[in-house]
Amino acid sequence: MIGLGTLVNAVGVLVGGSIGLLLHAKLPERITQIVFQGIGLFTLFLGVSMALKTENMLILIFSIVIGGIIGELLHLERGINRWADRLKTRFQFGHEKFTEGMITAFLLFCIGSMTVLGAIEEGLGGTPTLLFAKTMLDTFAAMAMAAALGVGVLFSIIPLLIFQGGLTLLAALLGDFMSQSMINELTAVGGLLLLGLGINILEIKAIKVTNMLPALIAVVVLSVVVGLF
Q1: H helices present in the chain, as ranges
Q2: pLDDT of res. 112
Q3: Residue 112: DSSP 8-state
Q4: Of the candidates 154, 134, 123, 158, which has an alpha carbon nearest to the alpha carbon of residue 3?
Q5: Distance of CA 143 to CAs 150, 161, 164, Å?
Q6: Cα 43 to chain center, whole Å?
Q7: Do 111 and 50 form a contact (C-beta atoms < 8 A)?
């Protein structure tokens, strides 16, 4: 059960991203570059504001460290890059920022209280009002991001459907299972990952953010464990 709200959200990202791609094709290189840099700066700002939501620094630190170790052991970044390369070859996508665009868009669209609370709202049988409101925001965000980061933004709907749809299904099965504290910690970890992506986008330093994605699972587990004591 993915849910109507998540499906509408995915369509909004596709529509906004498609418009952004059309703009990208018509924009001069210097305009695309300044948009690209603007997205990088905004990603840094959003990452900081989200990371500051943590209520427990130890959960935040250990989530990133444990997630990063798991990602390295699984060679997650290498696997996703190979999958992205196959897609680019098969569909003749030429944009070099494919993976970066997909992961940045996924984190921007899926990590935050509106996503989690909206998915839980729908999973518990309510009208997905929050997800419909989120769709409006994501549509315009996808437009701007696709203009700068390319077609990878459109493919972010794959992890979006899995993550957001999975939360809706869990809410339907388990009820309101996520506390506000857990949502805050998940948001904070997502913020740190966005900070890393912002640094990558601005080409300050190459950070293996993809290998740190298991931190999004580690933070939920750690929050549950801490909550038991």
Answers
A1: 4-26, 29-51, 57-74, 76-91, 98-110, 113-123, 129-149, 157-174, 180-201, 215-227
A2: 78
A3: S
A4: 123
A5: 10, 19, 20
A6: 11
A7: yes
Amino acid in position 150? G
* Residue tagged 């504001």 (tokens): 49
Q: What is the DSSP letter of 96?
A: T
Rounded alpha-carbon distances, angstroms, from residue 151 to 10, 43, 165: 14, 18, 22
Q: Which two tokens stand for residue 215?
A: 């931190």
Q: Which two tokens stand for residue 138?
A: 């994501």
Please, are residues 80 and 221 in contact by the beta-carbon 8 Å criterion? no
188 near 51, Cβ under 8 Å? Answer: yes
Among residues 219, 197, 218, 217, the alpha carbon closest in space to that of 208 is found at 197
How far, in Å, CA of 178 to CA of 96, rounded? Answer: 37
Structure confidence at residue 203 (pLDDT): 87
Would you tell me how many other CB atoms lie within 10 Å of the CB of residue 32? 18
Report field, pTM of the whole predicted structure over 0.85: no
In angstroms, the CA 55 to CA 181 distance is 7
Buried b (16+ CB within 10 A) or exposed e, 117-152: bbbbbbbeeeebebbbebbeebbebbbbbbbbbbbb
Half-sphere exposure of 117 (CA within 13 A, CB side): 13
Mean pLDDT of 145-172: 90
Q: What number is the average pLDDT over the span 43-57?
A: 93
Extents of the domains making up the chain: 4-227
Q: Kindly state the average pLDDT of the residues 122-145.
A: 90
